[in-house]
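U., I forgot to send this yesterday:
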Amino acid sequence: MKNLFSILICTVLFLSFSCKEEKKAPEGPTQMKKVMAIHDEVMPKMSSINQISRKLRAYAEQHPDMPAERREEIESTVQQLSEAEEGMMKWMSQAPSQYKKLREEKSEEALMQFLEEQEAVIKKVRANMLQAIDDGKALLSTLQPDQKEQ
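Result:
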């Protein structure tokens, strides 16, 4: 009876350890690395946003008698550039601290959901930045040749 009990205990222990699901390392880049790769791709473009914006404002100041329609187009593009820059600054000020807090307090599932949401947010920031840069360059190309993006 004692042997049977010992065998039963050993079997239960063996089964409990063998049935546990092992966590495997994720294949490919982690979700956080994917999010940061998008950030790292567009962050250097912040200087382009500032440069284009400065050139457009300088053009507007140097040409006070330009048609109102052209002035509005420049102001609108400068605003678009500013909003794209602000989108990146806002994301950088919020996402890392939220990630750190969630990492300390929440489950892996909640953290993954947050990172998936942040991937969508940073993709939108990227799209806004790239569109603003393209629009700014296009507008500069219609102005005097010396004001074009180089």
